[in-house]
């Protein structure tokens, strides 16, 4: 609430990471009676990772595909977020993942004081709105898929992230939207 009063132009975002495997995950699906759908099982464990940041007001997504999740790639993604919202304060909500710490992160935060970080409580992924984005994209792209190549599946996953809006009631549930409207 302090943010709404002191800096109403602040962009509030939620960040998280997800891994995408070629191994199809399953969900319910309609099929003609007696014709059970078949999902191919990929024997490997190859994967790619995504950093995702959700603008909690607009529902737009900033995504970064990467082969590793570490402090260096986290800093690269934070640069992407800073470039997406130039010249405005940013409040970043994220969890306490080990790759959210380290020298690259400390250096980036020192160089960009307009980026402020707040952590979700430990072991509370249900609070992070970005988790709902992952669920929606997995449902649309990676559940029950028949794709044979990880790269092709990752391209579809990334395209869905970048081309869809993901609404969140997170700010509204804390009265932030109504309060910030009073000060703008």
Helix/strand layout:
Elements: H1 2-6, E1 11-21, E2 47-55, E3 61-66, H2 71-84, E4 90-94, H3 103-111, E5 115-119, H4 129-142, H5 150-163, H6 170-173, H7 176-183
Parallel strand pairs: 1-4, 4-5
Antiparallel strand pairs: 1-2, 2-3
Helix pairs in contact: 2-3, 4-5
Protein architecture, described:
The protein is an alpha/beta fold and 184 residues long. It has a single domain, classed as Nucleotidyltransferase, domain 5. It is 37% helix and 20% strand. A 5-stranded mixed sheet has the order 3-2-1-4-5, with helices on both faces. A hairpin with a 5-residue loop joins β2 and β3. α2 packs parallel to α3 and α4 packs across α5.
Short description:
The chain is an alpha/beta fold and about 180 residues long. About 35% of the residues lie in helices and about 20% in strands. A 5-stranded mixed β-sheet has the order 3-2-1-4-5, with helices on both faces.
């Amino acid at each position: 609430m302090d943010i709404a009063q002191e800096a109403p132009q602040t962009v509030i975002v939620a960040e998280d990471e997800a891994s995408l495997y070629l191994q199809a995950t399953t969900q319910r699906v309609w099929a003609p009676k007696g014709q059970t759908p078949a999902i191919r099982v990929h024997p490997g464990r190859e994967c790619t990772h995504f950093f995702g940041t959700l603008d909690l007001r607009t529902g737009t997504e900033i995504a970064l595909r990467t082969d590793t999740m570490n402090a260096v790639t986290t800093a690269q993604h934070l640069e992407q977020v800073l470039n997406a919202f130039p010249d405005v304060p940013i409040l970043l909500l994220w969890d306490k993942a080990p790759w959210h710490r380290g020298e690259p992160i400390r250096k980036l935060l020192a160089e960009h004081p307009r980026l402020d970080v707040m952590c979700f409580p430990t072991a509370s992924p249900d609070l992070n709105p970005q988790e709902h984005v992952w669920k929606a994209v997995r449902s649309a792209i990676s559940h029950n898929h028949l794709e044979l190549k990880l790269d092709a599946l990752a391209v579809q996953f990334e395209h869905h992230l970048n081309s869809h809006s993901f609404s969140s009631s997170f700010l509204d549930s804390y009265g932030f939207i109504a309060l910030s409207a009073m000060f703008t």
